[in-house]
Amino acid sequence: MAASVAFSVQPRLEGKVALITGAASGIGEAAARLFAEHGAAVVVADIQDELAHRVISSINSEKVSYHRCDVRDEKQVESTVNYALEKYGGLDILFSNAGIIGPLTSILDLDLKGLDNAMATNVRGVAATIKYAARAMVDRKIKGSIICTASVAACLGGAGPHAYSASKHAVVGLVKTACSELGAHGIRVNCISPFGLATPLACDAYKLKPSEVEANSSAVANLKGVVLTTKHVAEAALFLASDESAYVSGQNLAVDGGFTVVSHSYSCF
């Protein structure tokens, strides 16, 4: 028998079904835990089977399950959406979070195959998840919420590697165009742009310890005294997934402590 979840506050996603890609670690894992805590049935979608099963086991809820999905493969995306529909009877929330960093090189040495893979994962994968999740919502007349993970690198040049930055700019564009069409069906589409995080993805890419990534980010952060964590980003996703953001659509919510709206080269203070 699955353990019951104790709520200290009113659950904000009770009765809703959420699909989260890239949910075996990092931001996606934090969101899966938080969404489940707030009453949602959650499909954890990823290609890291062992990690995903650990997440499912630790959440310990009969309303949380795993479905393997490589977002670069359209058929797998369609299958994962269908799995959510068949297992839980609907789909209210898509958190399209799966992504990669891509080549860490100068533009002069950019590996175009690496660029292609970053675009296939971060852009084509997001487009595929939006496509099939939105189809399900439209067909069932569900006024759902679609959330995509972008980045501060989608707002500023030099805030990330070239392939990664290009792909995250495209994610923001997809969110805006999807918002313009899906609003007619009552479906909200937004994205989140986090500042530098010590996720397994970032640590592996830069070959740094979590404490080193946090120290590097904190050194250039605008907001001092707070270290950004995956839970902070998950809480932003919870807001966009819940009815508290019922009239919020087409937005890029920066979880960056003001990093993208201030000048880091000049200050009059």
Question: What labels describe this entry?
Answer:
269 residues, alpha/beta, seven-stranded parallel β-sheet, 8 helices, NAD(P)-bd_dom_sf, Short-chain dehydrogenase reductase 3b-like
Number of helices: 8
Beta-strand content estimate:
5-15%
Estimate the mean pLDDT confidence. 94
Low-confidence stretches: none
Helicity range: 40-55%
Largest sheet: 7 strands, parallel
Shape: globular
Pfam family, one: adh_short_C2
Organism: Rehmannia glutinosa (Chinese foxglove)
Family: Belongs to the short-chain dehydrogenases/reductases (SDR) family.
InterPro entries: NAD(P)-bd_dom_sf (IPR036291), SDR_fam (IPR002347)
Question: Briefly, what is this?
Answer:
It contains 8 helices and 7 strands.
Overall description:
- There is one protein chain.
- The protein is an alpha/beta fold.
- Helices cover 43% and strands 13% of the residues.
- A 7-stranded parallel beta sheet has the order 3-2-1-4-5-6-7, with helices on both faces.
- β2 (41-46), α2 (49-59) and β3 form a beta-alpha-beta unit.
- α1 packs across α8 (230-241), α3 runs parallel beside α4 (112-139) and α4 runs parallel beside α5.
- The longest helix is centred in the middle third of the chain and has 28 residues, at 112-139.
- The protein starts with 16 loop residues before the first strand and ends in a 14-residue tail after the last strand.
